[in-house]
Fold TonB-dependent receptor.
Amino acid sequence: MNFPVTRLAAALSLAFVFAAPSFAQTSADTVVVTASRMPQRAHDVIADTTVIHAEEIARSGAGSVADILQRQRGVEITRNGSAGASTSVFLRGSNANQVVVLLDGVRIGSATSGTAAWNAVPLSSIERIEIVYGPLTTLYGADAIGGVIQIFTRKGEGAPLATASVGAGSNATRAAAATVSGSANALRYAFTAGYEDSDGFSSTRPGASGFNPDEDGYRRRNANGQLAYTVAPSLEIGAQFLHSSLWAQYDSGSAAYDVHNDQDLNTAAVYASSQVNANWRSILQYARSEDKLGSYTNATAAGASQIETEQDELTWQNTIALGADTLQLLYSHRKEDVYSSATPAMTRDRITNAYAAAYSARRGSHLVDVSARHDRSSVYGSKNTGAAGYGYDFGNGLRATASVGSSFRAPTFNELYYPNYGLPTNKPEKGRNLEAGLRYDAGQLQVDATWYRNRLTDMIVSATPCPGRPGSCAYNVNEALLEGVTVAAQTRVAMVNLRGSLDWQDPRDETTGKQLARRARRLAKFAADSRFGTVKAGAEVVLSGERFDDAANNRRLGGYGLLNLYTTWQVTPDLSLLLRLNNVADKRYELARNYGTSGRTWFAALRYGIR
């Protein structure tokens, strides 16, 4: 492996090879929702899944959800500066626009770029995160080629609970959040509000276009809530919302004007969940998400531009128990609206209607899942996808799985309509995935190994010449292969919990033979923690091999290794103190060429919660 680590670090890597599915602990009894759109024990899920629990999120300190994801197996990120800057997340080498992102079941993202506003998602609102690797198009529709990431916010339960936190750290970072949650009679509720400010650091380095050595800070404000009311034993209705407002500076070469973005992420949903009879549950939900981005490069009207995506989706999901088996029937109607102040040709809409069915069965040691879906788009026509998975339990904690699935990614509005770039004739990208896995769970020791091979065709890239006109354009011309092996484990030695993962992957463009941009062939993530009375201390290591910043593989990004340390002290049953050090060795590295990354930073926080 081409990791920039010493022999000691390499020895630690070997010692940790038999160490966790991720830094998140996904035991056989963990309940997951995303993999099958219904609650299931992890032991009964065929898809490769990671769950990030509340404790890990709480000890992450200030920053962004992308920082937490970066520490998980099979995940890479790029970012154009600080935690408030534009961010991309790759799963198993897939493009950032080949991953579906959900927030409490509501799809978020820009229809123009095809990616989610990771920099606008507030950490203070998150209760847990589920990552499902591999194609899930049959359950979630277009774009779920590399996988699905679902973020769950806090829910009300039990006696009233009030929590609050305040923190401060490097780069004049300040953060605070408060939550009130609980249940009373038939009502459940949870509300959170928070803010985070940071002076940041220069988003670019010398050599970058528009380099300006000033500090580029960010400011994030957020509020979210959930309400659920049990009308009758067989009927629950509810509503939820989230609003996050991000103000973030960036560099464009101007020292006379405060160049910045204003970004709003909004979601809202209402639902009714009915237990029609003993075997049939029906859920009807209407949801809306908004991604609004304003860019301001000078003080004139010409320096301001606004681009907005609105997504409205109506889903009707029916889950029917047939003895020990389960049948799911799903209908979805989704409308995407785009508005662009600077580019009127981008102001358009797209409607997709979809029908899907999934069936899961367990017979003794055998577990089977099959699913199929039909999508009908007003822009790109009909697409059919299917998936099948099989699992066999050998007993004594050993299980094998195998699956096959097809998927597709819809062309973004940029790829269809952006002047002198998009082509309205562009077709969806297509994927076909094969994978096999082994899992061993002996209580104190868990080991996972997964092999996958995802072949992509009709990849949309910037191609020259452009059919029908001179110059370059987005065009269906390439093929890619995402192939790799992940080995992950966790165990406990004496008083120390050890967790880690190794990824060997080969994300390559088969048309050119080049490595896909900003994706490494080797990744490793390790962690260790131990508790001493009321104090818990831990360390995290993130290692990445070299990558290339461009599709031609001319601009090399060196490999890097990061060491993070943290400790939490439970001062009283209601009060805890967190101290975190990131990039302890003050490593200089790049996630994107000539864009800044933070050096050594610290963050401290007090948390208080009472019932």
Remarks:
- DSSP finds five helices and 34 strands in the chain.
- The two ends are 50 Å apart (CA to CA).
- The CA atoms of residues 502 and 524 lie 4 Å apart.
